[in-house]
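Hello,

I think I submitted the zinc ion job twice by accident. Can you confirm which output corresponds to this input? Input:
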Amino acid sequence: MTLRNILIHPDPRLKKVCAPIEAVTPEIGALAEDMLQTMYDAPGVGLAAPQVGILQRVFVMDCVKEEDAPAKPMVLINPEITWTSEEMNTHEEGCLSIPDQYAQVTRPKMVRMRWLGLDGKLHEEEFDDLWATCAQHELDHLNGKLFIDYLGAMKRQMITRKMVKLKRESARD
Ligand code: ZN
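Support: Only one job matched these inputs. Its output is below.
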């Protein structure tokens, strides 16, 4: 297992629509393992392949919050939304590609998603609350969309300027 380098916004690879995965190969399995490891290490509750520079449709998540609860690592390949609730929910979101920046984003409170698992089988499950927010946030990544795209232009530009500065400073170190 290898920790992968997480891309920081702005990066053209974070703005790309990712390609479907045609087969669950051992390489995809290894990528998913690396992504989970990278996500837990960060730490974060979700990570999409483009965030580690791989432009393919897969993301990982684990939104278990209780310290003593068992981890629930999930790997979603070619995920699709099959249903969304009319009820909306506002959560404060952050992103491993936009460190230390948080904002309120409103999305459907519940979603049903269908995806291909590492077992090569189709899965379908309903997600609620934090799981639903996370799943939608990660699916957005596969379509080149970031949570800051839901914010007003001023706020988005302010965050982007901060990230440009952060990248410039870390490049100097
Ligand atoms: Zn993100």
